[in-house]
Amino acid sequence: MIFAMSRNLVISILVLLVVLTCVGLLQFGYAETPRDLLEWSSKIALVMSGALVLLSIRPVLRVLHLITFAKYWWFPWLDGEWRAEIRSNWPKVERMYLAAKREVPKFDAVAAPLTSDDELVTMASVTIESSLFDISIEITPDGTNKVSRTRFVRSRWAKPDRPELSYVYEQLDSAALPPTDARQHFGAGIVEYFEKTDELSGHYWTNRKAEAALNTAGTIVMRRVVPPPLLARLLRRESA
Known about the structure:
Strand content: 25-35%
Number of helices: 7
Mean pLDDT: 86
Order of helices and strands: HHHHHEHEEEEEEEH
Organism: Qipengyuania marisflavi
Protein name: SMODS-associating 2TM beta-strand rich effector domain-containing protein
Low-confidence stretches: none
Distance between the termini: 38 Å
Keywords: Membrane, Transmembrane, Transmembrane helix
Largest sheet: 8 strands, antiparallel, barrel
């Protein structure tokens, strides 16, 4: 998540921490001269390294995120379970493929309007996990053996734009596949976070069967799954 900050902000925070530490050492008499501060440099570096280790622990980072209201100035906390609605242009790609094989009438993908029949809607479960230096996303489409895991995720918030995630992922499928599909492919996407509706929404594209010009693209909307209140969970556990 740290990469959501601008470089200037990261440098400013580091400088501020060092300055505050030096002021504290001088104020409380642990150092009296610049030479004394130099002698403390190794200890200061050790303390900052320890702080980074602590912030690498997700619960610690979560608490800091809450108490500093970081969702307003850093980046929203996106950890948790989400439900995704994925709309693919595969039906239109398939019509072009079948038309090329003369199994269906000729089809002009540019002139023909995109209708609801030309979209494939898939629902999926999504898990997002964050740490100080990393964000991971796992997407599992309903009723399939497919699973997509991110290889790279970059968070960005350039105000007044919305917070956004850019990602590259790998999808694996262990099921029996038709010749128009691939057991492994890579894709990429970019989604924006809408605070009012608590949604991530954007576009994705893939290199699936790109050598046959059958690669796909589409849109994805992720809605957070709100866990039931603690009391409801306890009652459910008791009834089980």
